[in-house]
Amino acid sequence: MSWFGPKRSAESAKERLQLVLIHDRTDLTPAELNSMKDEILEVISRHVDIDSDAVQIAVEHDGRQQRLVADIPLRSLTRHRAG
Amino acid sequence: MTAQVITISSGKGGVGKTTTVANLAVALAADGVKVVCLDGDIGLRNLDVVMGLENRIVYDIVDVIEGRCKLRQAMIRDKHLPELYLIPAAQTRDKNAVSPSDMQRICNELRPDFDFVLIDSPAGIERGFRNAIAPADRVLVVTNPEVSAVRDADRVIGILEAEEKRSTALIINRLNQALVKQHDMLSPEDVLDLLGIPLIGIVPEDESVIVSSNRGTPVAQDTKSRAGLAFRNIAKRIKGEEIPFLDMEKQAGLWDRLQKMTGRRS
Questions:
Q1: I want to staple A73 with a disulfide (CB 3.0 to 4.6 A). Which of A4, A51, B224, B237 is the partner?
Q2: Which chain B residues are closer than 8 Å to A25 by Cβ?
């Protein structure tokens, strides 16, 4: 929508609420979520080589159900060697 | 007769709980079912003025609990609808004068004589709210399409889930369709997507609501008011009738999507 000028306020309201509600429901602050992500990645990278730039870890909601969704691409050995 | 006990709650104050209780009560009673309203807002009673019954109060709910009168003596009959009663809150006491088990006892005494007991919950999530939801078979959460009201509604819904209260449904009050159209107000779909509970009604913003409260005659009695129609429709849905949502802008597909979100269609 950005090419129409500033974002309409309803869109900001929804985006802000989505984040606030996740934190209200899980009692997890953005800072705690970030340190948890770092810990998860640290554990995983002890065992496999991961593409840390492409990692995505976020809390998503489906109805009233919260879930932590992680998408962690692994570097293949061949690519690793080539790079 | 075994009444269903329905509590109207919201978390945030000023979203229209009391107006909703008064209007649903009037709409249900006008349809011929027996209704009693219980004002759960001890110390800040208002359901009496919104219903236009403030001059008839002799006893209140705390008088019943503390044994100064019988339950029947605290029940005020509506001026127009013989099947509608109000049990007022106490004005000079605080919410600690009532406990959740008091509310359960009063509702159990009312159940055999009525079809519906409607409880007006106070704002907040403390004692008064806990009292109001204790006897509820069903809780209707009222919200406005606005950030603070939606956030507080989510807190209330979370507490209801934790208390294992089933059959919670949402009323979106004061929807301004013009603002929604220009993308400056959360749409009903946005609110439902955020809160994730079924919808039972959308009430448009309507000046006639204020005019009716001024007069003490709830807007549900006004056949020309759009908000009045919305409240009458919610009353019918409470009775289990399948009533389509007000198609305020005749937007193609909106109605279908809302129906899906309420689980009426899969």
A1: A51
A2: 154, 158
